[in-house]
Amino acid sequence: MASSDASTDMFAPPINRAMKVLDRSFFQKTIPTSAARIFNSKDISRCRKELTASRETLQNSRLDPVRPDTDQERAQKGGKCLLLRPEVVHNDRTTWSPKLRDLEQDGTLGVIPFQLNLDYDYFSYSEITSAIIPAPEKKSDDEIPQGFALAGHVAHLNLRERYWPYKHLIATVLADKNPMVKTVINKLDNVGTENAFRTFQYEVLYGEDNMDVELREQGCIFKFDFAKVYWNTRLHTEHERLCILFKEGEAVCDVMAGVGPFAVPGGKKKCFVWANDLNPESYKSLVDNIRINKVGDFVRSWNMDGGDFIKKASADLLKSEHQVAIYPKTKFSRSAPENVRKPEPIKTLVQPRIFAHYVMNLPASAITFLPSFIGLYSSSNPHLPSNISIDEIKQLVTKQGLPMVHAHCFSTKSDDNVAETKEICEEISRQLGYEITPETPEVHIYDVRDVAPKKRMFCATFRLPEEVAFREI
């Protein structure tokens, strides 16, 4: 942005509300200003420092104040000048600061007129779209769309109806101003309501209809078809927040794992992750991402219903035996590869028999899966191994503790979230048949993000109550 001393309008792009196809050449603007001609190139750094201190130079993060001299002969010899803010008039010394006058009087510089030319490349996405799209008629109307979600090379818009006539203009400018964007799409329906797998119908507004994306998160590579699986880049901080809770050697049950944003980083941390997703395409990508990130020793994958998986995985873990030897990193010698011996393991991680965490990242319905935890370690769970008694399981629980459950959900939106926290706890209590309150130890209702003007995403974390886990049905 231009400095506060300069008029904002002076650096704004020209306006054309009738533009239907983007004309980049239209966005040309010349700003009459002044420049300090530096007679000796050795003085450029000093002059820039002193004139910046006196607030004389043009302060604009998108413009380099050091320019070739306007005189071609001087410029060919390396002559430079410093852009000054528009309020400094070259032939009106009353607009000059004392410092600028001193530098001019001692022959260090001269003040000359300068025509500053701006073009399409200078103006931002926000400035261009504001110049071609009519402003909202009422304050209550939607603002001109600025944000978008990015998944690899695909930019994902969710345009309100009033912007549909300008959607191709918006997409083209967005791609121009974001070099990593090759495809721009617009969502046509609501995720989680029209499709159980949280996928959505879309239209391509710019570029090819190529939805095979690759991106990085938490030091991991994720590849998937964005049209066939669920991915939300805005949840990266939530992915990181929960993964920080996982400790090396713990067992984690990722019930609705998607393509692996919790499972794969968990495997990188040397956690034993059992990951599941009902969507066959998500499962396929999950398997590929486990392989790509080389976490197959720690992460296993399933493709089944989440409720069934909770009971089956918990029972199977009791009888599953698995361990991973951890070796020190060694340097490979190309000149003498035969001399590189396999080192002794530093330690061996043994897979626990009880999960430390259950992650349920399906906010539209995760809480409705909580009844699957009722009787998890009782004889009413048909998957429990017959050779392990309930008393033995209770001994394991006494030693390790019952797992923490992290269930994502939606609720309303208020300033303090007090009512929402209470309502979420009441719904958890109803699903479990056991009272959970905001005051219950180890209960935390975390505010994840806003998803709509009156809708917010939360993560309800609580320790699975013993009365629920061992309840006979």
Automatic annotation (TrEMBL):
Chain spans, region Disordered: 55-76
Catalysed reaction, written as an equation: guanosine(37) in tRNA + S-adenosyl-L-methionine = N(1)-methylguanosine(37) in tRNA + S-adenosyl-L-homocysteine + H(+)
Compartment(s) of residence: Mitochondrion matrix; Nucleus; Cytoplasm
Domain annotation SAM-dependent methyltransferase TRM5/TYW2-type: ranges: 148-466
Pfam families given in the database record: TRM5-TYW2_MTfase, TYW2_N_2
EC assignment: 2.1.1.228
Annotated Gene Ontology cellular component terms: mitochondrial matrix; nucleus
Alphabetical keyword list: Cytoplasm, Methyltransferase, Mitochondrion, Nucleus, S-adenosyl-L-methionine, Transferase, tRNA processing
Gene Ontology biological-process entries: mitochondrial tRNA methylation; tRNA N1-guanine methylation
Subunit text: Monomer.
Function per UniProt: Specifically methylates the N1 position of guanosine-37 in various cytoplasmic and mitochondrial tRNAs. Methylation is not dependent on the nature of the nucleoside 5' of the target nucleoside. This is the first step in the biosynthesis of wybutosine (yW), a modified base adjacent to the anticodon of tRNAs and required for accurate decoding.
Sequence similarity: Belongs to the TRM5 / TYW2 family.
Annotated protein name in UniProt: tRNA (guanine(37)-N1)-methyltransferase
Annotated organism of origin: Cucurbitaria berberidis CBS 394.84
